[in-house]
Amino acid sequence: MAVRRLKPGWYVLGSIALVLAVWFGAPAAGRRMSFFRVRRIEFSGLQYGAPGDMLARLRIPERLSVFDDFDPVARRAAGLPGVRKASVSRRFPATLRIEISEAEPVAVTPRGDGLRLMDEQGRVLPFDPSRSAPDLPVAAAPDSAVGKLLGRVQDFDPTLFAQVSTAWREQDDIVLEVGGRRLMFRPDATAEEMRAVTAVSEDLARRGRSYRELDGRFAGQVIVRGGA
User: What is the pLDDT of residues 115-164, one digit of tens each?
Assistant: First the structure.
């Protein structure tokens, strides 16, 4: 009895059909298996937020499978206060990995009966400063102009930023208190202006005694203004 052999093209088509069946059928089958239900949550990128708080806000379904659509979880994560962007991925057999990019704080500011972190936009972040204990200046009040200037100082001159103790708005200027001296900047001060003001301030500090002798009213209170 003769055995008919399949042509090579049929083998290729059969292989493709098998791959497609596994590709589209496995998720549907996996969703029904408890082995693939999410039992572990991993957070990546958290520096200021608390994993427990994040998890409570995400409202992850109890029977979520690693084969399910994670877009709703990713959207909720990206919409959390203090989160700039978020992505969600899976790791088999039962792990959900949530990568978070947080807003970077530039100051702490009074809020209620305590202090809260503040970002460059002057937004109060829902993070506990005592958790990460960042060494940040104190902004007298939530203020976007103060926040943006502090952000630029942090980028352009980290050494100066580390020396800022307090910051506040004074009419159209931003005042930074550095080592007992007050440096006054326009809100849009450039890096060059910051460096120039720092250089003048350091020179005044070195010769502080002779400057104080000019007028006792300004002892320890020399103000240097940056910008035109």
Answer: 999 999 999 998 888 877 678 999 999 999 999 999 999 998 898 899 99
Cβ-contact 83, 54 below 8 angstroms: no
Structure tokens given for 101: 């990019």
The position carrying tokens 């970077």 is 104
Closest CA to 127 of 44, 41, 43, 51: 51
Edge-to-edge strand order for the sheet containing 181-185?
124-125, 114-119, 105-111, 138-139, 164-170, 173-178, 181-185, 223-226
Q: Is the dihedral of CA 16, 19, 21, 23 positive or negative?
A: negative
Residues with Cβ < 8 Å from 149, sequence gap 6 or more? 167, 174, 176, 185, 187, 189
How many of the other CB atoms lie within 10 Å of CB of 64? 20
CB 176 within 8 A of CB 137: yes
| In 92-207, alpha helices (H) | 129-132, 144-156, 158-163, 191-206
Residue 95's pLDDT is what?
95
Q: Which of 41, 109, 108 is nearest to 77 (CA)?
A: 41
97's tokens = 């990995």
- Rounded distance between C-alpha atoms, residue 41 and residue 35, angstroms: 15
Decide if 126 contacts 81 (C-beta within 8 A): yes
